[in-house]
UniProtKB/TrEMBL annotation:
CDD domains xref list: 4HBT (cd00586)
TM region positions: none
Domain of life: Bacteria
Lineage: Bacteria, Bacillati, Actinomycetota, Actinomycetes, Pseudonocardiales
Organism the protein comes from: Saccharopolyspora hirsuta
InterPro entries: 4-hydroxybenzoyl-CoA_TE (IPR050563), HotDog_dom_sf (IPR029069)
Protein's recorded name: Acyl-CoA thioesterase
Length: 143
């Protein structure tokens, strides 16, 4: 299927003293976009387990230009790569007129009851595979 696109509203409180969206708030905005994919869209497709435990194991973000509140919203394109048995990476490109940031998060499914990581279910893997870019799908097919 390719990239999932989420539109996230900017809030006045996202700005810092320098007049642009603070770096910590940018990560929160990406989290809101990711929740739309992993929780809202997954639930819409009948998959409920992801909302019961998913943690960020690593986050990397590169800023390309300041994100200003005047943009009013952030469009976030997300795709999945490195889909493994017990982890996957979500790639992000965030736009406000132009690309303002690219990022990735290493996601790990987590069993809250047991207090430890768990493996992805077959249904979760199928759902995540829908959001792999075509080049990634082709590479996985060759492997």
């Amino acid at each position: 299927m390719g990239a999932f696109v989420a539109e996230v509203a900017l809030r006045w409180s996202d700005m810092d003293a320098f007049g642009h969206v603070n770096h910590a708030r940018t990560i929160t905005l990406l989290e809101e976009a990711r929740a739309e994919l992993l929780f809202t869209e997954a639930e819409r497709q009948g998959l409920l387990g992801m909302a019961e435990g998913m943690v960020v194991a690593r986050v990397v973000i590169d800023y390309h230009s300041p994100l200003l509140y005047a943009s009013k919203s952030l469009q976030v394109q997300m795709s999945v790569r490195e889909l493994k048995a017990a982890s996957f990476i979500v790639d992000y490109t965030a736009y406000a007129q132009e690309a303002v940031a690219t990022a990735e998060t290493l996601m790990v499914p987590y069993d809250l009851q047991a207090g430890r990581p768990r493996r992805l279910t077959a249904e979760e893997r199928d759902f995540l595979a829908e959001w792999q870019l075509d080049a990634v799908k082709a590479e996985n097919a060759r492997a």
